[in-house]
């Protein structure tokens, strides 16, 4: 029996008249509808680092996520349910997603998540990931070393208790250094885990612990291999998911990542929303959008803010280092066209001072700015899709050789 | 020639009908008027740690301060002036005070400021305070060890550039362990520094670098000695200050502090506003208000928030430790009657989780709560002065033996 996903819908309202696969959609949830393409901000431990949810809304945020892996360990899914679920606990009343927990289990077992997905490092397995079997993954808690066991069914049950709108199936996030044979075997196991996730989801009726319907993403794996990506995308399209996520190893370079995403996108379910896991670079978003990706997530915009970096359109490397002494006595805002709280109220010189003085407020102002900038980027992209001017929007946002630095 | 302090006034509008020396005043500045008694929050390095100035206003804050000592070192007074002065730089448009820098120079030379003022520790002089002479104080920068020299004239010039409404004369903040002879000699030098501060202030016309008038506080010293406190208060009352601050060593115990403040208050200028430096405990504020103190400042409300403590009326020790496991699954707000952003949107259980997870947001929510609570305390106190019910207000706010814990 098919899952109906009551309260959820995805309507593709526009396609790029200039010929790319970019599209505009309306993604509706029990917590409201958002326009896509859109960016999902990471509230890993049920908090956006440094901002209240009110500030997130003030900076025009539509959707956020939280991480099952962190929350199952601290404070635990039952406690989140007791506090009313993630929406109530965090005071976030818009759409929300949780991942399956798999990403961090495997990434923390293998090394850095981003390094693995982006192929920047090969590491041997470390102690936190103890064992992967058909049944599930055994790993150690990052807080107290306790041995934990996560299965597809447990992940779905945890996400039912956490109560987001969107839940994600458990998968094995294959590292960069594994070979084709491992990738193929792992991919097939992930799809069996997808079937088990759907069965578990149906068993509880797709209703969260706080009584609202949820919708599930399946994950396309297959590493850097075109035939495996095709096979994986087709399997997921035939499973009873509401939406599709593209995960796993996306290659060693930015160019390879674009190729790998393209391999999957040629075969995903055509009318379901598609999420690209863990990618948030401005140029990568333009590439992804042109391939038909509807949503993105990445810790980068908020994380680099805490290290003193401000995202800015048309800047080399996509960001300004606000700790640079050249901003010391600069009384202009980071970006006069931005409109975020930081750009309306603070000068570059003041932000530079706050960073040098190690004042939390410096990180907070930059987080607001980067959140606002990502949301502005996505608005610009949506407007450009409708008018067929994605190339011009990209020209404005992405620095290229010959531009000033 | 007397200083006129244009743009400033202090009008005592009510006195406690129940007989204490408590009073209500309207303290007017070029950045607006506030009602007293009131509490001044510490924005040490030109930032309230963890909150935007908009959030400070949302939590009903009337007045803040910044520290000359920190700002003269980083980013420097000239740079603050170049960025438009403290009000513009910080986006704070209400009344503001800077201190003279002396407090930190001497306290960091002698050990912890609070410990010294409150007599909790005797230390020998450390290296940061190198020399005190009639001319001024030589000390080392806390950032790079550079040798710096601060005189009364330099302090006034720095505060002119920083541009707050209220400036404070340089004084020697005598430590607890010095004897009566040292205290008397130091007090007299501080008053000569007061004269020099007033002369310097008159020379630049009492107008800040950004063109607005400023008003100056003189400081009453005299340690724990009644005759010295009397002499000091009378000297300051006869100097041409706009307002009075009570500083220096206030004794070894809470009781002695109340005695020492009383010694000074019997002799201060009767119609000038009086500030009590560095005191912010709830019971201390009730004591100070009853002695006629108009304003208080202390890092405590915002500092303890960052360590996980929530101020609350009628609670033993004046605060709740939100890291305590008993709050783990508590879905009620810190204080249902509070009305701050944290109490409107977050449960104790969520705040407990954020603190355990080391999320900045936990500190931020508690800072909002403590700021709001101090402002609510001061509103309650002002209302109680008018109705002669300070004893009842104190009974509500201050825990006493026999109350539940």
From TrEMBL, chains A, B:
Keywords: Glycosyltransferase, Metal-binding, Queuosine biosynthesis, Transferase, tRNA processing, Zinc. Substrate binds at residues 99-103, 171, 221, 248. Pathway: tRNA modification; tRNA-queuosine biosynthesis. Its EC number is 2.4.2.29. One of its GO terms (cellular component) is cytoplasm. The active site is at 99 (proton acceptor), 297 (nucleophile). Its cofactor is Zn(2+). GO terms for biological process: tRNA queuosine(34) biosynthetic process. It catalyses: 7-aminomethyl-7-carbaguanine + guanosine(34) in tRNA = 7-aminomethyl-7-carbaguanosine(34) in tRNA + guanine. Zn(2+) binds at residues 338, 340, 343, 369. Residues 278-284, 302-306 are annotated as: RNA binding. Binds 1 zinc ion per subunit. GO terms for molecular function: metal ion binding; tRNA-guanosine(34) queuine transglycosylase activity. The keyword Transferase applies. Gene3D superfamilies: Queuine tRNA-ribosyltransferase-like. Catalyzes the base-exchange of a guanine (G) residue with the queuine precursor 7-aminomethyl-7-deazaguanine (PreQ1) at position 34 (anticodon wobble position) in tRNAs with GU(N) anticodons (tRNA-Asp, -Asn, -His and -Tyr). Catalysis occurs through a double-displacement mechanism. The nucleophile active site attacks the C1' of nucleotide 34 to detach the guanine base from the RNA, forming a covalent enzyme-RNA intermediate. The proton acceptor active site deprotonates the incoming PreQ1, allowing a nucleophilic attack on the C1' of the ribose to form the product. Belongs to the queuine tRNA-ribosyltransferase family. HAMAP family: Q_tRNA_Tgt (MF_00168). Homodimer. Within each dimer, one monomer is responsible for RNA recognition and catalysis, while the other monomer binds to the replacement base PreQ1. This is Queuine tRNA-ribosyltransferase. The lineage of its organism: Bacteria, Pseudomonadati, Pseudomonadota, Alphaproteobacteria, Rhodospirillales.
């Amino acid at each position: 029996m098919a899952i109906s996903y009551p309260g959820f819908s995805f309507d593709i309202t526009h396609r790029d008249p200039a010929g790319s696969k970019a599209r505009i959609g309306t993604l509706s949830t029990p917590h409201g509808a958002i326009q896509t393409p859109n960016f999902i901000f990471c509230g890993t431990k049920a908090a956006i680092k440094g901002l209240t949810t009110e500030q997130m809304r003030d900076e025009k945020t539509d959707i956020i996520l939280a991480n099952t892996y962190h929350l199952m360990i601290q404070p635990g899914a039952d406690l989140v349910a007791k506090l009313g679920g993630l929406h109530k606990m965090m005071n976030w009343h818009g759409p929300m997603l949780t991942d399956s927990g798999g990403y961090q289990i495997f990434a923390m077992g293998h090394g850095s998540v981003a390094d693995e997905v982006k192929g920047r490092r090969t590491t041997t397995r470390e102690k936190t990931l103890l064992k992967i079997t058909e049944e599930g993954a055994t790993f150690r808690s990052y807080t107290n070393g306790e041995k934990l066991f996560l299965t597809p069914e447990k992940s779905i049950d945890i996400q039912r208790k956490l109560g987001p709108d969107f839940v994600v199936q458990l998968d094995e996030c294959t590292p960069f250094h594994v070979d084709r044979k491992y990738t193929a075997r792992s991919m097939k196991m992930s799809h069996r885990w997808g079937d088990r996730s759907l069965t578990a989801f149906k068993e509880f009726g797709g209703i969260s612990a706080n009584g609202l319907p949820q919708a599930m993403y399946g994950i396309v794996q297959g590493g850097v291999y075109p035939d495996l990506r095709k096979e994986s995308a087709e399997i997921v399209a035939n499973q009873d998911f509401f939406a599709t996520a593209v995960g796993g190893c996306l290659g060693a370079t930015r160019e390879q990542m674009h190729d790998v995403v393209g391999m999957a996108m040629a075969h995903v379910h055509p009318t379901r929303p598609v999420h690209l896991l863990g990618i948030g670079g401005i140029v990568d978003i333009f590439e992804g959008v042109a391939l038909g990706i509807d949503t993105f997530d990445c810790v980068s915009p908020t994380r680099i803010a805490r290290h003193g970096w401000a995202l800015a359109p048309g800047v080399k490397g996509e960001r300004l280092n606000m700790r640079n002494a050249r901003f010391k006595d600069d009384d202009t805002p980071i970006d006069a066209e931005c409109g975020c709280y930081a750009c309306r109220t603070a000068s570059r010189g003041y932000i530079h001072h706050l960073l040098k003085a190690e004042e939390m407020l410096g990180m907070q102002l930059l987080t607001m700015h980067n959140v606002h900038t990502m949301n502005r980027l996505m608005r610009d992209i949506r407007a450009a899709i409708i008018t067929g001017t994605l190339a011009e929007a990209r020209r404005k946002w992405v620095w290229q050789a010959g531009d000033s630095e």
